[in-house]
Specification:
By secondary structure, this protein is of the alpha+beta class. The chain folds into 8 domains: 1-56, no CATH class; 63-159, Immunoglobulin-like; 168-264, Immunoglobulin-like; 273-369, Immunoglobulins (Immunoglobulin-like); 397-474, Immunoglobulin-like; 484-580, Sandwich (Immunoglobulin-like); 604-690, no CATH class; 780-872, no CATH class. The radius of gyration is 66 Å and the shape is elongated.
Length: 872
């Protein structure tokens, strides 16, 4: 029969009856079924019989994967695997103890920890407790299976964790200096120390902050040994209280509690003294003022200014001195009083401060001079050089200062010092600086032959006033006659003049006027105001006097005889003043009828010049007739006034003229002088009327420039810059124009412009044009337009003129004229519009511009000048 695959199999002869074959090769502790049949000799096979059997368990369990986990300071977890289920047994002994056998482990004898419990086949993890921290242990484990087979003993080593923080003790700070200290502490464990040093008043940090080494005055971390440790601290401020916070962390990460060590660094900085001064200085004392950076004790010595300066130690010892003291000083401002000094004496105070740590400041020096409390002493008061109206007052004083005197009549009540200094009353009085020693002020303004007393005091620089000294004297009789000087006759008209003279003293003047051919009158005749062509008497002042005389005859030569009589009757010699009255003005004839010119719809009247002839005038021994065009030179009356002043300059100019007639129209220099005089008399209007003359003047010959300089002492350009232009700019407040033209913002500083070598006559013309345009914008009226249009060089233009105009007004001249100027001209003339060739009453300015009638600048210049100068 076939024997298939089986755990065990066999075949053999079977006997009748009982048979007991052996089976081998089975595994212990295993359940089996045995299947058996018998086949007889005939080949018959019995039915299968089944026999169940289980082999006995004879194999002890095997342990593996042993370890300890979750180790803490007092326990751990044992880990092991067993090949069989059963019962585990363990004993935990100190690592140094002898290892037990399996029987001892199962017996659960004495041990640090022990336990038994069911074990499952595979992984098992019983928990151990009750252990000591930081201790080495060995756990001994066995497993007994259900057949009581016992495994061999497995050993598992473990060390419990350190869970105890170090403990700090013996904390202190030693070797404390001004900036460092030594920190001392003991620790129960080695590890790492951490410290923070904070100001004593700061919040206390926790252990984590100390370990994190947060913000602090000083901080450090380093290894800490078991027992005593002494790290150094540096970088501290002197004289400061600190708290040092220290912890130790052991190798297991356990951190001690925070220990605090209080320390105060030594004060090694001396106080600093500042803001020293002396105040409340009197004749015998003063107040010493100073500030100190620290509280402490001040010491001072006061010595004479010339004495050797003491050292700080000497000041503290309070050696020999004029004055000395010591007392408490607070931090900040202090004041100490010094007494016992001598007046008017220079002293030096030497001051030191010592703080609580015995640091002494450097010596501060404070100088002062005690006040003058001694009044000057006057002596030798007397009078000398006594005259009719004054005297010399003599006195000596022990100090310089200020003298005050009052002169009173001898019979008057004597004044006190206050009245003398007040200088209110007195026939004569004065105050002035006085020197130490002899002084001799002069007294004036007194009456002759009068008894006086002069009272005098002196006040020194400190306000101390002397006692009153006096000097009596009597003035002598007045025997000196007045003198007359600087006589002249001015403002000479056809029937009046002005007499001018200077008198040496006040009094009464007397004059009489005779014909130049009459005999000179006597002083008595003048004084008695006898028969004369003109006469008068009145008060005369000391100095310049002027009086008007009227009622004279034109073109007549006269002599004025003048005397002065003073208050005591002394009479001057007679002074004679010769003069000739002027001719009467010839009024101009009435103008002829106007010539009317018909131009389309507008009548243009061309005025004829008005020639004005002044009556002949004698100047520098010449009789000169002035002829000028009144239309050209403006207001006739203004010209008459100007002519009076012009005559002062004619002698200078007339030397070059042989003719006895000066035509102001023909003579360039003379007419220009008229213009300039009119500027002063009449203002800007007349100056602008003939401003076009400046073109030829400024480009003129050397003769003109020479003549101009002879009169005014400067060139035409300088005159314009310094007098003409400022007058224009001031009148119209044209500061912006001056800045653009001259490059200076202050027109008063014309020297900057004059000194500019590039400021040529041509630039003068262009600058004047710009000023004129400015005036056109700021004012209105045909006279202003007349100025712009008739001056052809203005409208000939050029990039420079356009640039100046646009920089001032922000628009081109054409834009301005067509929108502002032309409308103003139309309004003044009553016209509708003006074209290049005609005046059109039915066209607007805009239409003219758009149709091309109006062309700047030539077209405007060519026609408008005629209209502007007309009556319509």
């Amino acid at each position: 029969m076939a024997q298939g695959t089986a755990v065990a199999k066999a075949t053999s002869s079977a006997t009748l009856g009982a048979n007991s074959p052996s089976i081998s090769g089975l595994v212990d502790g295993t359940a089996y079924k045995t299947y058996i049949v018998v086949k007889d000799s005939a080949g018959n096979i019995s039915a299968v019989s089944t026999v169940s059997l289980t082999t006995l368990d004879t194999t002890a369990p095997t342990l593996s994967a042993t370890s300890a986990s979750s180790v803490s300071g007092s326990g751990a977890t044992l880990n092991f695997s067993t090949t069989e289920a059963g019962t585990y047994y363990y004993l935990v002994l100190a690592a140094k103890d002898d290892a037990p056998d399996a029987a001892a482990v199962i017996a659960q004898g004495a041990a640090v920890a022990k336990a038994t419990s069911s074990a499952t086949s595979g992984a098992n993890s019983p928990t151990i407790s009750g252990l000591a921290s930081e201790t080495d242990y060995v756990a001994y484990v066995v497993v007994k299976d259900l057949a009581n087979n016992v495994s061999s003993v497995s050993q598992i080593s473990l060390t419990t964790l350190d869970t105890t923080a170090p403990t700090l003790s013996a904390t202190s700070a030693t070797s404390v200096s001004g900036s460092s200290a030594t920190l001392n502490f003991s620790t129960t464990e080695a590890g790492t120390y951490y410290y923070l040093v904070l100001a004593a008043g700061d919040a206390t940090p926790n252990a984590a902050t100390v370990v994190a080494q947060g913000s602090a005055v000083a901080k450090a971390t380093s290894s800490a040994t078991f027992g005593a440790n002494s790290p150094s601290i540096s970088g501290l401020a002197d004289g400061t209280a600190y708290k040092t916070y220290v912890v130790v962390k052991d190798a297991a990460g356990n951190i001690s509690g925070v220990s605090t060590v209080l320390l105060t660094t030594l004060d090694t900085t001396a106080p600093t003294i500042s803001a020293t001064s002396s105040t409340a200085i009197t004749g015998t004392g003063a107040t010493l003022n100073f500030s100190t950076t620290e509280a402490g004790t001040y010491y001072y010595l006061v010595l004479a200014a010339g004495d050797a300066a003491p050292k700080a130690a000497t000041v503290k010892l309070q050696g020999t001195a004029v004055a000395k003291a010591t007392s408490a000083a607070i931090s900040g401002a202090n004041s100490a009083s010094i007494t016992g000094l001598t007046s008017e004496t220079a002293y030096m105070t030497y001051l030191v401060i010592e703080d609580a740590a015995s640091n002494i400041s450097s010596v501060s020096e404070i100088s002062f001079t005690t006040a003058d409390i001694t009044a000057p002493i006057l002596s030798d008061a007397s009078s000398s050089s006594i005259g009719s109206d004054g005297a010399t007052l003599n006195f000596s004083t022990t100090e310089a200062g200020t003298y005050y005197y009052l002169v009173l009549a001898a019979a008057d009540v004597a004044p006190d010092a206050t009245a003398i200094k007040a200088q209110v009353s007195g026939l004569a009085k004065s105050t002035s600086a006085t020197t130490m020693g002899a002084n001799s002020p002069v007294i004036t303004g007194l009456l002759p032959e009068t008894d006086y007393i002069a009272y005098i005091v002196v006040t020194d620089g400190s306000g101390n006033t002397s006692d009153i000294s006096s000097a009596s004297f009597t003035t002598v009789a007045d025997v000196i006659a007045p003198t007359i000087t600087s006589t002249s006759a001015t403002s000479i008209q056809s029937s009046s003049i002005k007499l001018n003279f200077t008198s040496s003293e006040p009094g009464t003047y007397f004059y009489v006027i005779y014909s130049s051919v009459d005999e000179e009158p006597s002083i008595e005749t003048i004084k008695e105001q006898g028969e004369a062509l003109a006469k008068a008497t009145s008060s005369a002042v000391s100095g310049i006097n002027s009086l008007s005389v009227t009622g004279l005859t034109l073109e007549t030569s006269y002599i004025a005889y003048l005397i002065i009589v003073d208050g005591t009757g002394n009479t001057s010699t007679s002074s004679a003043i010769s003069f000739t009255t002027s001719a009467v003005v010839v009024e101009p004839p009435p103008p002829p009828p106007p010539v009317v010119v018909e131009t389309k719809s507008v009548k243009v009247r061309t005025p004829r010049p008005i020639i004005v002839v002044e009556a002949p005038v004698t100047i520098a021994d010449k009789t000169i007739v002035f002829v000028y065009d009144a239309n050209a030179l403006g207001n006739v009356e203004a010209i008459r006034i100007a002519l009076e002043e012009l005559r002062d300059f004619i002698p200078i100019i007339a030397e070059s003229f042989n003719s006895e007639t000066l035509n102001l129209n023909d003579n360039q220099v003379i007419s220009d002088e008229f213009i300039r005089i009119l500027v002063a008399k009449e203002g800007i209007q007349n100056f602008m009327t003939l401003v076009s003359d400046l073109q030829r003047n400024s480009l003129n010959s050397e003769d003109y420039i020479k003549a101009f300089k002879n009169i005014y002492g400067k060139s035409p350009i300088d005159w314009y810059l310094q007098e003409g232009a400022p007058r224009i700019l001031s009148k119209y407040a044209l500061k912006n124009t001056s800045e653009i033209l001259f490059g200076v913002t202050n027109i008063d500083n014309m020297d900057q412009v004059t000194s500019n070598q590039s400021f040529t006559p041509r630039i003068l013309e262009r600058s004047f044009d710009a000023i004129l345009r400015t005036i056109l914008v700021n004012t209105s009226g045909t006279t202003k337009f007349d100025l712009l249009i008739t001056n052809s060089r203005n409208t000939k233009n050029g990039a420079r003129i356009e640039s100046i105009f646009e920089s001032i007004y922000g628009v081109t001249f054409k834009e301005w004229f067509t929108t502002v100027g032309l409308d103003g001209l139309r309004a003044n003339l009553g016209l509708t519009a003006i074209s290049a060739n005609k005046v059109v009453k039915d066209q607007t300015t805009t239409e003219l511009v758009s149709t091309g009638w109006l062309h700047f600048p030539k077209a405007i210049r060519s026609r408008i000048s005629v209209i502007a100068g007309s009556d319509e």
